[in-house]
Amino acid sequence: MYHNILLSILGAWLFLAGPARASNERVMTVKTTVDGMVCSFCAQGLVTHFKKHPAVSNVHVDLTRKLVILEEKKGATIKDEEITEFIKKSGFEPKKVERVTDAFEKVKADKKS
Amino acid sequence: MRSLCILLLGAGAAAAHPVSFQEAWQLMLGGTESVQNFEIYHSYTSKTAFGFHAMRFEDEGDDDYYTGLQHNWLLKRWNLPEAQANVYLGLGAGMAKQDGDSAAPAGLGFFRADYETRRIYTAFESKLIGSEDVSRGVTSLSFGVAPYKAEFEQLNTWIILQLEHVSGMEDDLDVIPKLRFFKGPYFVELGCSLDGEPLLNFMIHF
């Protein structure tokens, strides 16, 4: 009886912790839609702010798709709240924050949002 | 040569970026042969900046000078999906003088409204300086088009027509076609009024 309960708990822990651990070890790409981003001179602050963040290894601004694309360092995470705060500090209006497993360069090269 | 030095030392009235992103410094300098401008500000939030502003007005009579500290506010920004619009206010306090006179306390008021998409640019800007001896105003209206939609890392090019009125000058209204280029944190404007007066503006964020 106790043996079955212990096995169930262990199974549940492996089921839940496994994907979480895997996503922490994978390099994630974060896409954020930003309104008002029409001028590259004015959007310099976005790159300046995100490059200073210890969890971010790469930043790209796509004016056509109105996207800020971030690459997280392996095992590190930038919180959604930090992303929206940085975008506001740069003078823009953040919209949707989306995390994808596609490589940073692939998301950057993609022509569709 | 003297004119060139003045241009290189002096920020253009219609190229101002009074508040930048939080923690940024912005340096703006340039002008025309008759009006030169130097501004440096630190944006301590994304809506407020504080810094130093100097202007020189060259005239057939007396030259006027202004130097002062200035605070700028981004009063309102509209971040739209395909456009951005801004309203700025600046207030300054310092000293102004005419050639041969002693400096007197002076004040500066500044207002700017602009609207920009990736292809269209419009801006209205007005700057007033007043002291016991000096009374100057610079008001400009600019319209611009971008011949192509530049991406973030590319060179941006704009073709702009600037109408500028400087009070106290011989010519009441200047029509200045100009080219604007920017890439990364660097911004340059080159122009020439229909009267043949050259314009040069430079701006950098750091």
**Number of strand elements of chain A:** 4
Strand content of chain B: over 45%
- DSSP strand count of chain B: 12
Q: Low-confidence segments of chain B, ≥5 residues, pLDDT <50?
A: 1-14
Helix/strand/pairing class of chain B, anyone?
Answer: mainly beta
Strand content of chain A: 15-25%
Q: What gross morphology of chain A would you assign? A: elongated
The end-to-end distance of chain A, rounded to whole angstroms, is 52 Å
* Multimeric organization: heterodimer
H/E topology pattern of chain A = HEHEEHEH
- Total helices of chain B: the number is 1
Question: How far apart lie the N and C ends of chain B?
Answer: 30 Å
Following the backbone from N to C, one meets helices and strands of chain B in this order, namely HEEEEEEEEEEEE
Portion in helices of chain A: 40-55%
Structural class of chain A: alpha+beta
Largest sheet of chain B: 12 strands, antiparallel, barrel
The radius of gyration of chain B is 16 Å
Return the average pLDDT of chain B rounded to an integer.
89
> What is the number of helical segments of chain A per DSSP (H or I, 4+ residues)?
4
What coarse outline of chain B follows from CA principal-axis ratios? Answer: globular
Strand order of the main beta sheet of chain B, please? 1-2-3-4-5-6-7-8-9-10-11-12
Signal peptide (chain B): 1-16
Keywords (chain B): Signal
InterPro entries (chain A): HMA_dom, HMA_dom_sf
Keywords (chain A): Signal
